[in-house]
Write a structure and sequence with these properties.
This protein is of the alpha+beta class. It has two domains: 7-96, OB fold (Dihydrolipoamide Acetyltransferase, E2P) (Beta Barrel); 129-425, BirA Bifunctional Protein, domain 2, CATH 3.30.930. Helices cover 29% and strands 27% of the residues. The strands form four sheets. An eight-stranded mixed sheet has the order 6-10-11-18-17-16-13-12. Strands 1-2-3-5-4 form a five-stranded mixed beta barrel. A three-stranded antiparallel sheet has the order 7-9-8, with no helix packed on it. The radius of gyration is 26 Å and the shape is elongated. The structure holds adenosine-5'-triphosphate and magnesium ion. The site of magnesium ion has 3 residues, from strand 17.
Length: 437
């Protein structure tokens, strides 16, 4: 639209005639005149309407799409220092009339709806400023990630979603009829990331992962995105963790720069990052958990959700001033066949999770890069070698010592914003029940 001014830029246009376009967020009819609150992608503005303009809106509901031409004037408020502006409308044009009442009220400060109602009516509820803010933060996280990776000189890769064979084995696959053949949706970009280690040495990308999770939980979707990373010619797992930490700090910087208003609207106080994210071996973490809480999970091969929560919201902030903690050296039984075994203890792996503000956000580690070693690991896991032809081909033709990670984008958004359910951090979530909208 030519000559349109966004609401956020109106402050600089005092006394000028402007064109503003957006949705009718709220209407107050004072008989002789009226107030329309108009919402665009940048904010809300009050528009003063004449009786004739009010008449134009007769029978129309909120969300009607409007084009307003008017003069920017200082708004009369009780606070003399407020310096807010409003628009004195000269003409009003209706771009798209709405005659139905919205299924959920979206013009209150908070959206008062159960999660299922909110998602059933996503088409409309997404328009609420707080909902909008969530996905602005998510976008800024991705900007920060991409900017960090580009600065390192790494290459962005676009991974396929359709695959002929299971990428990592396991049963949680969605099957697809592919011209009569059995295909599947990828559970991860693991194979593809690793193949590129024969070329680019450092890659990143945003992938889609599909998992036929058996249950709906507050932390699992059936379709989600991962911020992927893989790097070659490394000496240790520590190097991979440094990239996790660097990119995470870059993402936090991006949201602080790009999303001040959104964070304030959502009442989010970002948890501290600390000087350096602490690193702790799984077994040591379980012992600390036992010593401090009395809960003994030292014989478990993994952290329980409660232990993840305690470690990242109580222990790490208190002891290390950080809401993030790396937990390392998971047992061989808990990590996939491509994870490198710890040379000092082959029952353990060179693997890590990053736990942040409540739960696991990242999984990563060093990968097996030699052919013989990979063949042996596939066999010892009881997997069929013939299913891994493409996998083994890259090892056969030379892959450097390498490692990488995958970071759950919706999980990260959920934890940073303190949302109770991951579906709130997913613009169009899919779970065991939900496939719409
Ligand atoms: P979890 O133990 O939390 O189920 P995982 O270890 O099975 O996750 P990974 O394969 O390590 O998952 O995936 C990498 C990251 O992707 C996880 O750290 C998490 O942030 C995210 N993630 C994994 N599964 C899901 C899911 N079903 N829905 C949303 N995000 C997920
Ligand atoms: Mg994991």
């Amino acid at each position: 639209m030519q000559n349109r001014t966004l609401v956020r830029d109106l402050n600089d246009k005092l006394g000028q005639t402007v064109i503003v376009a957006g949705w009718l967020h709220r209407l107050r009819d004072m008989a002789k005149f009226g107030f329309a609150i108009v919402r665009d992608r940048s904010g809300l503005v009050q528009v003063v309407l004449t009786a004739e303009q009010l008449e134009q809106l007769k029978g129309l509901q909120v969300e009607t799409v409007l084009k307003v031409t008017g003069i920017v004037v200082e708004k009369r408020t009780k606070d003399p220092n407020a310096h807010e502006v409003e628009i004195q409308a000269t003409t009003l044009e209706i771009l798209s009339p709405v005659t139905d009442v919205t299924p959920v009220e979206i013009n209150n400060h908070d959206l008062d709806a159960r999660l299922e109602t909110l998602l059933d009516n996503r088409v409309v509820t997404l328009r609420h400023p707080k909902q909008r803010a969530i996905f602005r933060v998510q976008a800024a996280l991705v900007h920060g990630y991409r900017a960090y990776m580009e600065k390192q000189g790494f290459t962005e890769i676009f991974f396929p979603v359709l695959a002929g064979a299971a990428s990592e084995g396991g049963s949680e696959f969605f099957r697809v009829d592919y011209y009569g053949r059995d295909a599947a949706l990828t559970q991860s970009a693991q194979l593809y990331k690793q193949i590129t280690m024969g070329v680019y040495e450092g890659v990143y990308g945003v992938s889609y992962s599909f998992r036929a999770e058996k249950f709906s939980t507050s932390r699992h979707l059936t379709e989600f995105n991962q911020l992927e990373f893989e790097v070659g010619f490394i000496d240790s797992m520590e190097e991979v963790m440094e990239y996790v930490e660097g990119s995470t700090r870059g993402m936090f910087a991006a949201i602080q720069e790009e999303c001040k208003e959104e964070l304030a609207l959502l009442n989010v106080v970002l948890p501290p990052l600390g000087e350096k994210f602490p690193r702790i071996k799984l077994i040591d973490a379980l012992h600390v958990y036992k010593a401090e809480t009395g809960i003994d999970e030292t014989h478990e091969p993994d952290l329980s959700p409660a232990a993840e929560r305690w470690l990242s919201t109580v222990w790490a902030p208190k002891v290390h001033g950080s809401g993030f903690v790396f937990v390392t050296h998971y047992p061989e039984t808990k990590r996939p066949f491509y994870t490198k075994l710890d040379p000092e203890d082959p029952t353990s792996t060179l693997s890590f999770d990053l736990i942040g503000f409540g739960s696991e956000i990242v999984s990563g580690g060093m990968r097996v890069n030699r052919y013989d070693e990979q063949l042996a690991r596939i066999q010892s896991k009881g997997l069929r070698v013939e299913d891994f032809e493409d996998y083994l081909m890259m090892h056969k033709y030379g892959i450097p010592p390498e490692g990488g990670f995958g970071m759950g984008l919706q999980r990260l958004t959920q934890n940073i914003l303190g949302l109770a359910n991951i579906k709130e951090a997913t613009i169009f979530p899919r779970d065991v029940q939900r496939l719409r909208p």
